[in-house]
Amino acid sequence: MVRDISAVDTMTENVESFRQLSPSEFFYRNKEIAGFSSPSRALYQTVREFVENSLDATEVHGILPNVVISISREDSSNPNYFTVSVEDNGIGIPSNIIPDAFGRILYSSKYKFRQTRGMYGLGAKMAILYGQITTGKPFEIYSSTSRSNKIFYYKLSVDIRKNEPIVFEEGAWEKKTSWHGTIAKVTIEGDWNKRTRDYISVYVKRTAIIAPYADITLIMPKFNGEQEGNGEEESEIVCYKRVTDKLPVPPKETKPHPLGIDLEMLKMSISESKNKTIKDFLMKNFQRIGEKKAEEILKIAGIDFDRNPKNLNDKEIEALYKSIKSVDFISPSPDPLSPIGEELIKIGLKQVLNPEFVDAITRKPKSYGGHPFIVEAGIAYGGKLSENLDEIARDSIKGQSGPFIALLRYANKIPLLYDEKADLIWSVVNPDDFNWKNTYKLDPSDIVVVLVHIASTKVPYKGVGKESIAQVEEIRKEVEAAVQELARRLRKYIVKKRKREEAEEKFRIFLKYIPEVA
Amino acid sequence: MVRDISAVDTMTENVESFRQLSPSEFFYRNKEIAGFSSPSRALYQTVREFVENSLDATEVHGILPNVVISISREDSSNPNYFTVSVEDNGIGIPSNIIPDAFGRILYSSKYKFRQTRGMYGLGAKMAILYGQITTGKPFEIYSSTSRSNKIFYYKLSVDIRKNEPIVFEEGAWEKKTSWHGTIAKVTIEGDWNKRTRDYISVYVKRTAIIAPYADITLIMPKFNGEQEGNGEEESEIVCYKRVTDKLPVPPKETKPHPLGIDLEMLKMSISESKNKTIKDFLMKNFQRIGEKKAEEILKIAGIDFDRNPKNLNDKEIEALYKSIKSVDFISPSPDPLSPIGEELIKIGLKQVLNPEFVDAITRKPKSYGGHPFIVEAGIAYGGKLSENLDEIARDSIKGQSGPFIALLRYANKIPLLYDEKADLIWSVVNPDDFNWKNTYKLDPSDIVVVLVHIASTKVPYKGVGKESIAQVEEIRKEVEAAVQELARRLRKYIVKKRKREEAEEKFRIFLKYIPEVA
Ligand SMILES: Nc1ncnc2c1ncn2[C@@H]1O[C@H](COP(=O)(O)OP(=O)(O)O)[C@@H](O)[C@H]1O
Ligand SMILES: Nc1ncnc2c1ncn2[C@@H]1O[C@H](COP(=O)(O)OP(=O)(O)O)[C@@H](O)[C@H]1O
Ligand SMILES: [Mg+2]
Ligand SMILES: [Mg+2]
Ligand SMILES: [Mg+2]
């Protein structure tokens, strides 16, 4: 795998040696780009990655999620070692796959055309790597699928140079119950301070807001102002009980949309295709291409309908590609998406914030570059809202000049907490660019909570840490439209309320003068 | 390479299939995280990656850089196809290495402990991939090292599934001159609009500001307000002539600092070591470990000095690791760094901005997590400065409330243009957090140009697109100290100037009354 060649340049006396890094080594060297930039952040990111895997393993497959997250110090001689374990009642992982799923970076079941939280085949492995390089402790996993009559156990690490699993222990037990699911456990160097605690608990809270159908328990060391644990440590337990049994419709895997492919993808799928004719190839491998559309495309490209796809030369494939890009298609099917829905958003905001006014909107599916997406938004105002803001939201509004916007960002149901100012959504709703004051009649002292969720088969994150969303014009427009609509409704409410208050005031004055008039 | 295993779960009727993605396929699917998020941005990023390779191949090796960048439409039937070619007089690439260096993602000569612009083994390959998937055209390269008597030519693409080169053509010519260097050429889908033009030309301009020892020529289509070229296209040529022959001292590869290693690195280098004793191993493989220090470390770890490193067990290696982290070391050597220097920064700012006041500072080397770094800063004020701001700086100050800060960010001599608001440097110098007005006596209408350069063996970029720097406390402190010092000097200048003006004013008034007094 590893090549080492030296190139000597005698004149400049320069010797350059070259090397191929494995994907493990690449991410190991650059762990901060995946969110593992410090012990505190690594703890947060570890919780995230495991929780997101658990929700993908349940909700995406029609199972009401039960998730238990536990963070504890188990090693009294190393008070900065934290064991994170996450248990779920998901579909489990077949035992023959476990070592690769957790020991090979970029090994994943989530490379498909379907909305999932995971997308890079990276998350769990980054946490495992981080544990391995900071505490030296291997990863442990228990898992069982529902059709298996055993529970499997593995203890493993990642071989960084080779990008493959090193299995230290494996075992299996007869299953006495119908349990299926996974328990993933890793020990990493962390840093338990107020900020770590806040980020993790806000992450779980915001997850619960938009997943009222989930049962989530978070157990973590009580933070008492001290940095280090003192032997017998107290725990803090936070429970989010299931509020509804209604799951959002799970995402359905679909074929790619013709506008979402590039020349290389077309070449690859032609070279891997088993279709006898190119017309058949087009109809079978893409959504939104029926018989007529296939013929239209082939006519423009000047290719016979019954040509064998494998016999097309590069020029012809290029002509085909251009022809595909030149015709019109029905926009991508929203089947692979699983939005939250207006009802659940309103329930979540009401429960957590106890506001005076709340509303929500789920926009129609749109697409960018062949990827379908749906933007949803919620808005909350007044009442007990400002007392109920979480720590991150409170921190965020501190830097603003009013009216204050507390933004709850979500992408594929993941709450995004870091890098707010670099995010597409912030660039739309922030009070410098969105005219909350003049157009929407807010007072400078008002606080508004805005929730925005972007669901897509491909969320255009700026980085593999999945923390902020890049500027994509199509998405930006939808976010704008959603928030404008909600702001309009809020304005209507505020104007009505003010009128009512004015009328009441007038009436009061009127009452005052009645005796004199009378 | 590609595995496909299906895991069937009969109860939930869920079938999950798994797959290992190659690093090529990973970055191909997620090209936006490497800066290839749109045709316009891809054009900018392509220029960057090739220019940065050219500067690494010259300056890092003590060669005064000559770089010619040319962007042109060559295919009249595809006005959105752009050919980018970058030529340099660098060390060249040995012919046997060329296919891997440009056809394998993560293949690189820049994985060493030394300051270079490249760091991920990704840049050139991303541009090649992008060309391949948008225009289908392969990459072309001419290269010769100084000791070779031939010039080599290759035409190649990346096999995405396998992460290996596909060579379409190769050739070699006798060399008639002593030329050495590289010409890299790729054709990608781009978008030539004002924004693209501005970003590319500002990128080159800012590169020239801090590399007055380089000769850089940029040839690009003249932007005349139209999006598409019209057959015979005019070019715009910008030349930055070499102003000085003085190169900064090139970076020198060094051994890693003991504080920069983690447990896994220690295990790997022990397993790969050829040293007979562990004491020897420590002294030979790290900087800042002499005989005494090695013995101190081993005593704490309870390991005999003459143990064979290969015979240490995991527990012992962990003890060794902890011991290393517990002792004191001289901070990392700055040898692998190559700062710009105060003189060159001042020359650059003066030449380009023509300000009334300019100053610069190069701080002493510091380190974070074993990585040495140096922060440098420059400041410019008054004069013709505001007329000479480039497009990006002008855009950036638009959103601010005065005093206005135009920030020029650099990392390892790369100008950073995107994601300013997410950057560590901005979080220090922005007028909301840095008290330019009260502490440093600026007027609300003043514009100040601040240049900050971070040089390190590992710049903590937030992403592989190398556009913004993550919050690292040690670096933050240095940036703050550098800018505070320059702001103090500026204040002194301003206060003096105001006093002089006041004195002149008084004198004028005095003169006015003299006749009456007399
Ligand atoms: N709790 C879990 N239950 C079921 N499958 C899981 C679980 N955690 C991880 N997996 C499987 O392991 C794969 C790798 O996980 P991960 O490294 O986090 O990458 P990603 O989630 O991006 O695919 C997932 O694609 C999924 O198929
Ligand atoms: N113009 C050039 N001159 C000499 N060597 C080059 C040039 N461009 C690229 N290379 C070599 O090819 C390697 C791969 O380049 P690239 O893909 O940009 O990754 P990186 O610059 O991060 O290493 C570099 O490490 C360098 O050794
Ligand atoms: Mg995951
Ligand atoms: Mg990023
Ligand atoms: Mg490079």
Which characteristics define this entry?
homodimer, 518 residues, alpha+beta, eight-stranded mixed β-sheet, six-stranded mixed β-sheet, 17 strands, globular, disordered N terminus, binds adenosine-5'-diphosphate, binds magnesium ion
Describe the overall structure:
The structure is a homodimer of 518-residue chains. Helices cover 35% and strands 23% of the residues of chain A. Chain A has 14 helices and 17 strands. The first copy, chain A, has helices at residues 23-29, 39-58, 98-103, 123-134, 194-210, 263-272, 278-285, 291-301, 314-326, 342-353, 385-388, 391-398, 424-429, 473-517, and strands spanning 5-9, 14-20, 66-72, 81-88, 107-108, 139-144, 150-159, 164-174, 181-189, 215-221, 235-240, 357-362, 366-368, 371-381, 404-411, 414-416, 447-456. Chain A has an eight-stranded mixed beta sheet. In chain A, strands 12, 13, 14, 15, 16 and 17 form a six-stranded mixed beta sheet that branches. In chain A, strands 1-2 form a two-stranded antiparallel sheet. In chain A, helix 2 runs antiparallel to helix 4 and helix 8 packs across helix 9 (314-326). The first copy, chain A, is globular and about 100 Å long. The first copy, chain A, starts with a strand and ends with a helix. Chains A and B meet through strand 1, strand 2, helix 1, strand 5 and helix 4 of A and strand 1, strand 2, helix 1, strand 5 and helix 4 of B. Strand 5 (107-108) of chain A pairs antiparallel with strand 2 (14-20) of chain B, so a sheet runs across the interface. The site of one magnesium ion (MG) has 2 residues of chain A, from loops. Residues 49, 52-53, 118, 123-124 of chain B line the site of one magnesium ion (MG).
